[in-house]
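Supplementary Note 2. Why include the ligand at all?

Several targets in our set were suspected to adopt different conformations when bound, so apo predictions alone were not considered sufficient. For every target with a known small-molecule partner we therefore ran a joint prediction. The input for zinc ion is given below.
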Amino acid sequence: MNKCADSENSCSYTLYIQNDTEVRREKRKFKSSDEAIRAAMYMNMKETTIHKFVAYKCTKCVYYHIGHTSKLLSEKDRKKAKQFIKYNFIIKQKKNGHDRKH
Ligand SMILES: [Zn+2]
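The joint prediction is reproduced in token form.
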């Protein structure tokens, strides 16, 4: 079990409101900054994302998480994210020989 999992403002959970109810959702943990950056870029690529996502190293656990900033995502950021994902996807495909689904 993770040491941060049971504290109230745990890094393992993120709170959001759904149908007037507070919902706790487990925050994704990434073992490397590369993985976290890729996940953040994936969010930045989405048309529904309004604020820019960034990857950060957690101070409470040994993992990386992603979170959104107060900065608005620009078309330029979105384009950059798309290119990043495209590039990484090609690299990954070449390495593994097949595409792994998350
Ligand atoms: Zn954490």
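Residues 4, 11, 58, 60-61, 63, 65 surround zinc ion (CB under 6 Å). Confidence is low (pLDDT under 50) at residues 1-9. Comparable summaries for the other entries are listed in the accompanying table.
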